[in-house]
């Protein structure tokens, strides 16, 4: 079993926490962050955490006697790599679940079906907003739209203010209508 001096472990843990904080912060402004994978699951976050620790240890080993900077850089790079690998694993899992047909619509396997009124227009997100597995805020988060991101609005869920978001003709999630607008209408980004 490997043992590490307390100073090295403190440095690696501090660097891992800093890298995780930076990666989560980047997720709110970029299309790829620790929590913004387009497929649902927890593998992206786990990959980022494991990558941060492994990267921190490697950075510390490379850095020598005063390795704080190398530890931080290694942890950040490890978190980014682990996050990307975890997201790809989540996408692979989603692809294995496959899509199914419901009332003339193709839906990802992780979505709950509903009754729809066809829209078939391009919409844009007014602000960053989560995609849900069902037309309710209590359902699982299956992705995220960034502010000003355009998407296919396949349909509106009958009797609700929820929109079925499509990607290449397949429903990938639900979003509340008050967070999106048709592209041809003027919209204000808050």
Spans of at least 5 consecutive residues whose pLDDT stays below 50 are: 21-32
Report the mean per-residue pLDDT as an integer. 79
DSSP strand content: 25-35%
Helix content: 25-40%
Q: N-to-C terminal Cα separation, in Å?
A: 53 Å
Total helical segments: 3
Question: What would you call the structural class?
Answer: alpha+beta
Number of strands: 9
Structure description:
The chain is an alpha+beta fold. The protein folds into two domains: 6-97, no CATH class; 99-182, Roll (SH3 type barrels), CATH 2.30.30. Helices cover 38% and strands 27% of the residues. The protein contains three helices and nine strands, in the order αααβββββββββ. It has helices at 6-27, 43-63, 68-97; strands spanning 99-102, 105-108, 116-125, 129-132, 141-145, 150-157, 162-167, 170-176, 180-182. The strands form two sheets. A seven-stranded mixed beta sheet has the order 1-2-8-7-6-3-9. The protein has a two-stranded antiparallel sheet with strand order 4-5. The longest helix has 30 residues, at 68-97. The chain is elongated and about 65 Å long. Mean pLDDT is 79; it is low at 21-32.
């Amino acid at each position: 079993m490997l043992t590490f001096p307390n100073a090295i472990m403190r440095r690696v843990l501090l660097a891992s926490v800093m890298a995780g904080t930076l990666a989560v912060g980047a997720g709110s402004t970029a299309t790829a962050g620790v929590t913004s994978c387009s497929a649902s699951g927890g593998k992206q976050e786990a990959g980022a955490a494991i990558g941060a620790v492994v990267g921190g240890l490697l950075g510390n080993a490379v850095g020598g006697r005063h390795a704080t900077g190398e530890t931080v850089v290694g942890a950040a790079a490890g978190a980014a790599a682990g996050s990307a690998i975890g997201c790809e694993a989540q996408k692979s899992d989603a692809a294995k679940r496959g899509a199914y047909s419901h009332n003339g619509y193709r839906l990802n396997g992780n979505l709950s079906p509903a009754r729809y009124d066809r829209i078939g227009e391009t919409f844009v997100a007014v602000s960053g907003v989560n995609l849900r597995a069902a037309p309710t805020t209590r359902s699982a988060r299956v992705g995220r739209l960034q502010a000003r991101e355009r998407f296919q609005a396949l349909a509106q869920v009958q009797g609700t203010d929820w929109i079925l978001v499509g990607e290449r003709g397949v429903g990938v999630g639900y979003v509340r209508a008050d967070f999106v607008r048709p592209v041809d209408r003027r919209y204000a980004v808050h």
